[in-house]
Write a structure and sequence with these properties.
Helix 1 packs antiparallel against helix 2 and helix 14 packs antiparallel against helix 15. The protein has three domains: 165 residues, no CATH class; 41 residues, no CATH class; 164 residues, no CATH class. With 382 residues, it is an all-alpha fold. Helices cover 69% and strands 0% of the residues.
Length: 382
């Protein structure tokens, strides 16, 4: 499985990287000629198709994949989800449309993957020079598994980051409609409404204070008092009907320590933090760069504080998605100004992914290594 993961994820990264690179070059050339660039050009289509194929053909990649698959197959037979609790109406409606027509689950999961990536790409359709780095951050970093774990909340987080365009333009009605759509996929999206009134402001930033907060957040997340609090939160959610989402993964979550992979995640965030003032100057103090980083920073700090609460840690999905643009700006800045940082970042992402494939292959419940569904679907009962 490790070799399969290297081949699949490596190939996907390469296809997405070079497709994104060509998309950026095409846009720059057409801009030089005074021409607009359509979104759906061949390289973008290839990028989207490669990603959706890999997500659609997966088996037990992401902790929730098999439970979603079980639900979908049950709905094809009965018209209802297997889950004991009601799911959001928007998500259920789309699942029913696929199920009624008995569309293969490959296309069902591929569709949701398309939605996730499309929303992120389309938000940055005028800045396609960032696209190559999206591939590294999404596939070789943490985002691929985040998108394939809590799928509904991950989809809602993609809708939320897309809604940032309406925050920038101060279009409240369009923003609220977008968040309403997100809440039909996962109810927690309504919490994002508050950010319309926050992200338009000039948010404070001091890299020394932020670094201090990051360290304190990690320390707090590992204290016994906080660990007990996190456990009590999960126990509460188990008692009110969320046991299927807590119980199946609690042992995995609580086994996480501050190992090499966690340190890589923290180091990457710290690099972004440290060079943020220089990145802002390089990109002419583009306001959104600082905003993207602060949201990403909150996500990382919150994740390490809440890492032992499976339920609460998922709230950070709405923040962690901002690492895609934030780290992409860091990559581009480093490539043009500090090559040693650029190659160091690439090394960290490759090392992180390889370590994940190797270490997680030894777990009883390995949801990281890639498997094609056709090798397992007929021989592994759900």
């Amino acid at each position: 499985m490790v070799l399969t993961s290297i081949l699949v994820y490596g190939s996907l990264t390469a296809i997405m990287f070079y497709s994104g690179k060509y998309a950026g070059e095409r846009q720059a050339e057409r801009k030089r000629l005074g021409l607009d660039t359509p979104f759906f050009v061949p390289e973008i289509i290839l990028l989207l198709l490669a990603f959706t194929f890999v997500c659609g053909a997966r088996w037990q990649v992401g902790q929730d994949h098999l439970s979603y698959l079980k639900d979908y197959l049950y709905m094809q037979k009965t018209g209802y989800f297997f889950s004991t609790k009601d799911l959001e109406s928007g998500f259920t409606f789309i699942a029913k449309v696929f199920a009624i027509f008995h569309i293969h689950f490959f296309f069902y999961f591929a569709f949701w993957a398309f939605v996730q990536l499309f929303l992120v790409l389309y938000l940055f359709k005028d800045k396609r020079y960032l696209y190559p780095y999206f591939s590294i951050i999404i596939v070789l970093g943490t985002m691929f598994l985040i998108w394939n774990n809590g799928m509904r909340q991950a989809i809602a987080s993609c809708i939320f980051i897309y809604s940032y365009k309406y925050i920038e333009k101060r279009q409240l009605i369009k923003f609220l409609i977008t968040i309403l759509i997100a809440s039909l996929i996962h109810h927690s999206a309504v919490l994002c409404i508050i950010f319309y009134f926050i992200l338009n402001r000039d948010l404070p930033f001091n890299k020394y204070w932020y670094l201090f907060i990051l360290v304190i957040g990690v320390i707090i997340g590992r204290t016994n008092l906080w660990l007990n609090f996190s456990q009590n939160i999960d126990n509460f959610f188990s008692s009110v009907g969320y046991e299927e989402y807590v119980g199946t993964t609690t042992s995995v979550i609580r086994s996480r320590g501050l190992g090499g992979r966690s340190l890589i995640i923290l180091a990457t965030c710290a690099l972004n933090l440290w060079f943020l003032p220089e990145i802002q100057r390089y990109f002419n103090h583009e306001k959104r760069i600082k905003t993207f980083f602060i949201m990403y920073f909150i996500g990382i700090t919150g994740f390490f504080m809440l890492i032992n609460s499976y339920v609460l840690s998922r709230i950070t999905y709405y923040f962690l998605i901002f690492q895609i643009p934030s780290l992409s700006y860091l990559f581009l800045y480093a490539k043009n100004n500090k090559r040693y940082i650029y190659y160091g970042l690439i090394f960290l992402f490759i090392f992180y992914s390889l370590a994940s494939y190797i270490i997680d292959s030894g777990l009883l419940w390995d949801c990281t290594n890639y498997r094609f569904f056709w090798n397992y679907y007929k021989i592994m009962p759900l």
